[in-house]
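Whiteboard transcription, Tuesday session. T.W. wrote the structure tokens on the left side:
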């Protein structure tokens, strides 16, 4: 059975990704900071709850020790869509806090889980990003969120290059503007955004790696 771990899986896109992967027959490990929220969400998604705060080295080490084999890692957990800030006046404390969850968390978790991923014959790493991080179209605003996602995109490219020989496919995915707690009302259905992530999580062995996608189509870096 394919084993998948999704961080930030207790709500929004993460929860729907868990549900869609479970519907495909995956054994889904639903990670969330709160054990209670993880348990409630897992019951809805058909997943197994795991307490996992991606900013906690202790949590990451515990989870890595518990997981011997992993096929799919979806780095979805993210915070701080700071629409109230501008780069010229940004609170750098807020920027650093966002980076802890949006960049260093996925980075440390990926490092810790690489032995388990390397045991898979079809390992996939999906970093949930945003078109706001596209340097091609980058403007002002949301400096904490945007800078952390730009860095996550860079990490995606580096990991893809370094893990290519191991057959691990690593891609960044923008789910689009989705109607979630972070995205706010007016976005497209959560199921559509999650499907974009699931596409990258279930790529065939000859699928792309080191790419940036939405709905299976490349986005400009």
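and on the right, the sequence the group agreed on:
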């Amino acid at each position: 059975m394919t084993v998948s771990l999704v961080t930030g899986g207790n709500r929004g896109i993460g929860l729907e990704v868990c549900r869609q992967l479970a519907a495909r027959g995956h054994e889904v490990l639903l990670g969330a900071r709160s054990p209670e929220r993880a348990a409630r969400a897992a019951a809805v998604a058909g997943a197994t709850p795991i307490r996992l705060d991606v900013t906690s080295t202790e949590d990451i080490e515990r989870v890595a020790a518990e997981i011997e084999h992993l096929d799919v890692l979806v780095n979805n957990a993210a915070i701080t869509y700071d629409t109230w800030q501008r780069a010229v006046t940004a609170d750098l404390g807020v920027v650093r806090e966002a980076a802890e969850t949006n960049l260093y968390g996925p980075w440390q978790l990926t490092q810790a889980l690489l032995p388990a991923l390397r045991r898979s014959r079809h390992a996939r790493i999906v970093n949930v990003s945003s078109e706001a991080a596209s340097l091609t179209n980058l403007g002002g605003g949301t400096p904490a969120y945007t800078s952390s996602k730009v860095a996550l995109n860079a990490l995606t490219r580096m990991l893809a290059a370094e893990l290519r020989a191991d057959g691990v496919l690593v891609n960044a995915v923008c789910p689009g503007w989705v109607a979630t707690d972070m995205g706010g009302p007016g976005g497209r259905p959560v199921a559509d955004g999650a499907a974009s992530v699931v596409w990258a999580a279930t790529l065939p062995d000859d699928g792309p790696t080191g790419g940036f996608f939405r709905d299976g189509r490349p986005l400009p870096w």
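Someone added at the bottom: The mean pLDDT is 96.
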